[in-house]
Amino acid sequence: MKTLEKQVDKMVVSIDPVVFSLINDKLHILLVYRDKNDEVHPDTWTLPGGVVKVDDQSLESAIERVLETKTGVKVNYSEQLGSTGGAIDPRSVWTISISYMALVDPQQTIKNAKWVDLDLMNDYYLGFKHHYDIIEKAKDRLTNKVNYSTLPIHFLGEKLTLPKLQKVYEVLLGEKIKDKSTFREKMLKTGLFIQTDDKLHEGAHRPSWIYKVEKQDIHHFSKNII
Amino acid sequence: MKTLEKQVDKMVVSIDPVVFSLINDKLHILLVYRDKNDEVHPDTWTLPGGVVKVDDQSLESAIERVLETKTGVKVNYSEQLGSTGGAIDPRSVWTISISYMALVDPQQTIKNAKWVDLDLMNDYYLGFKHHYDIIEKAKDRLTNKVNYSTLPIHFLGEKLTLPKLQKVYEVLLGEKIKDKSTFREKMLKTGLFIQTDDKLHEGAHRPSWIYKVEKQDIHHFSKNII
DNA sequence: CGAATAGTGTCTATGAGACAGTATTGA
DNA sequence: TCAATACTGTCTCATAGACACTATTCG
């Protein structure tokens, strides 16, 4: 009878999260700089990932631990993108890379990491080549979901206004929403928003109503928003 | 400086595919019976999965190898569902389970495995408890995609008729499509189908035109089919 | 010709989008 | 009162769905 030791192949499992945030109406991701003395890919940038350990209870707790220790960030929403495998590590160990995308609102203190504007990614050289693919996949998943869901709520706090939410959609879709009335109608019909008694005064014009997000459910529309 | 050996945690990575097929207008999945002498979970059923080896080039080649050696099946379409991790193995090794769903057409010879009607799953006890979750997830992903894409084409061969395709959609959605004209229009508008010169004669009634599937692209509708 | 299913033409009701209007504020 | 943005009401046009019609085959 086979014993497990003989049968098993040893592998390294790494978690690679793409952490998104909206800063000044521009989409940013979190990158970590690798020290000059780092054993692997020194003096380059990477996703704020890490290796899964046998002490982790699950992948979910592993990603929490990795993000917490590496960057101190706490995520509002996270979702697994997928896994790839191969001899991608320069030390030629067989590695499984499990990638995630996560959304946070940017009012947090971040340590040892930097918010990088996605349009300025050319200035940041990534040591692990497959991180480029993961970032592309995360962007695709994000913009795709924005089309037909209320996912962008997680870029804002619990209190929001409809013009602010519309702006977030416009930034993520890279396109102006021509008509606000349809947008408003669709959003309110989800039942996720409760109008409060407060208004947000932002200039010499009519203030916008502040809504409270009822539940953190994500509503999926049966038709694309644009 | 840290060395890799000290830093690494050893893990087992298993691939767990849910292989779907339509047999007699009923959805089936492929299950494997574990021998009485099997070290782990003897005398139970499992998904036709296996352990990733360092000789595998990638996860894609690993799933091909596993399915080929365990069941001999060749898939038309496969898609990764996600990964979970934890001490799920009875030998209490930390295991990553990477699950897939795959579609095949059932005209193949299968070895060491059985097509099981999803409605009769109660008769089959699964040794690995997390396989129940994976099967649920695969069913969800499948029925969800059927709503807004041409994925069901992969249950049929390269040549098909629109009434046959409609029947596949109805089985997968568990619902009659009331009006065929809208369904036909939507499907043809994708541009995936080319009408051939042949017809399929099936009874004492007008024959249906046979279409050829142009490319194996999956079209995503911007609105749900039903 | 009748039964049965394949395929088409047309009408209608729904709903998204365009557009123009009103509302509310600060200066 | 003007400028600026928030918000609402209405019209139109596209389109999905309902329905009825024609087409083609076998027996």
Question: What is the structure about, briefly put?
Answer:
With 226 residues, chain A is of the alpha+beta class. Chain A has helices spanning 4-7, 59-71, 130-148, 162-173, 180-189, and strands spanning 12-23, 26-33, 45-46, 50-51, 77-86, 95-103, 114-117, 159-160, 193-200, 208-213. In chain A, a hairpin with a 2-residue loop joins strand 1 and strand 2.
What can you see in these coordinates?
Chain A has 226 residues and is an alpha+beta fold. The model of chain A is unreliable at 1-8 (pLDDT under 50). In chain A, strands 1, 2, 3, 4, 5, 6 and 7 form a 7-stranded mixed sheet that branches. In chain A, strands 8-10-9 form a 3-stranded antiparallel sheet. Chain A contains 5 helices and 10 strands; from the N terminus they run αββββαβββαβααββ. In chain A, 26% of the residues lie in helices and 28% in strands. In chain A, strand 1 and strand 2 (26-33) form a beta hairpin. Chain A binds chain B through residues 1-2, 4, 7-13, 37, 39, 51-54, 56-59, 62, 80, 82-86, 91, 93-94, 96, 98, 222-224, and chain B through 1-4, 7-13, 37, 39, 51-54, 56-59, 62, 80, 82-86, 91, 93-94, 96, 98, 222-224. Chain A binds a DNA duplex (27 and 27 nucleotides) through helix 5.
What is the average of the pLDDT values of chain A? 90
Q: Beta-strand percentage of chain A?
A: 25-35%
From the N-terminal CA to the C-terminal CA of chain A, the straight-line distance is: 60 Å
> What's the assembly state of these chains?
homodimer
Unreliable sequence segments of chain A: 1-8
Number of strands of chain A: 10
**SSE string of chain A:** HEEEEHEEEHEHHEE
Category from helices, strands and their pairing of chain A: alpha+beta
Overall body shape of chain A: elongated
User: Mind telling me the C-alpha Rg of chain A?
Assistant: 20 Å
Count of DSSP-assigned helices of chain A: 5
The major pleated sheet of chain A works out as: 7 strands, mixed
Largest interface: A-B, 35 and 36 residues
Helix content of chain A: 25-40%
